[in-house]
Amino acid sequence: MLGLLLLQVLASCLWLGHSEVVNSFDSCAQFFYDGIPPVIDAPNTNNLARICQRFRNSYRYATLYNRDKRIPVYSAYKYEPGKEKTPPNWWMVEPQLVDRNSFPDMRYDSTLTDFTSGQINESQAVPADYNGEKDLDHGHLCPSAHQFSKDSMIATFTLTNAVPQYKKLNGGQWNIYEYRTMKNMAKGCTTTYVITGAVPGNTGISDNRVNRPSHIWSAACCLVDEKSRKAWGVIAENDKNEVKSHSLEELEEKLTKLYKGKVTLFNNACSQK
Asked: pTM for this structure?
């Protein structure tokens, strides 16, 4: 009996991810080109949380999370696809969004016995928010398919890295972009930095607890060698199965209009001009 109990404890621990709510992205700056996070000068975005997403003692990517909308503003990562199979579709939450002094690891909401369900629900999206949604999926901003190792792939299954995404888009043209277009565009790149984000919309799910973005976008900065680089961007309306390609500058201009505030994604350091 004791042996079985130990195995159960070990199994549960293997699925614990570590993530930190931080004051700055200094400890996970490696996921930003030149170590500088993007600037999204949107109004009414004061209640934000910076999260260094860590799993099994390694940082995997970075996320800026909108506590009010209960969706990420963006996730930043390096494009490093591998050959591992997609992990189980088990979604976790962030305890430190409830209490900064809580567990430094992402966990399943059912295991957070130190908090009431109300406390967890108030701080972020939870798996139950997506129940019954027929036309919407959990849309990864940092997709598991863009990660090299199984541990990094598992670390993407946290709701701080997901938005309600139109199902036909998530399984259609956005999927094509993530799997095919990115692979082709990143050929010849020694390092590819990616920022994927969501523009808040005017509707939501789960009695408007979780915002449904109006647009989902992604930008990439590819380092070819020490002097050469290229950049590109895409954007999609979150109720259509269509992805539009843009230059980095065009995407920044479009996002500046949508956010109603200046947007600079790679600190003007990966410009094509």
From this structure: 0.89
